[in-house]
Design goal:
This protein is an all-alpha fold. The protein has one domain. The chain is 78% helix and 0% strand. α1 (2-33) runs antiparallel to α2 (40-75) and α3 packs antiparallel against α4. The radius of gyration is 18 Å and the shape is elongated. The chain starts with a helix and ends with a helix. 31% of the residues are buried. The mean pLDDT is 88.
Amino acid sequence: MPSTIAACKFIGTTSLGLFTGVSYSLAALSIPSLLALPSAKPAQHVFISLKQSASLHLRSLAAVSFLTLNLAYALSPARARHPYLLWTSLVAGLAAASDLVPGQSLLSQDQDDVNGETVERAVRASQRLEQARAAVGLLGFTMALVGIWGDGA
């Protein structure tokens, strides 16, 4: 059983680290490069495709982290149930829930008339969201690393 708990902690921490890295690379590299495309129509198409693909992967990583850290907490004996597991899984869930923020303006794929300023606004808003998500993910990842280091698992 201790090896199962350690594996859950390791998987949860690793997936949270991957989540943070993907969010950071989206915010720092991928999303800003869309503004260099020559016109609004290709930028819109690539932006929508990137957001859909990234959202699927980010939600999957956050869900794995959330579930495995909660499972590690549930399987731990009473004396070894460290609250950092719950806090870290809560942060992972919060980072994943940022997709559900109302008012996030995604462009519509079927628009024929695309305005460059609208695309730029959507790209900038998405970049800010990914920066915030990366910061929250980094907080959770740091908590997980310190917690694992502290309990020796």
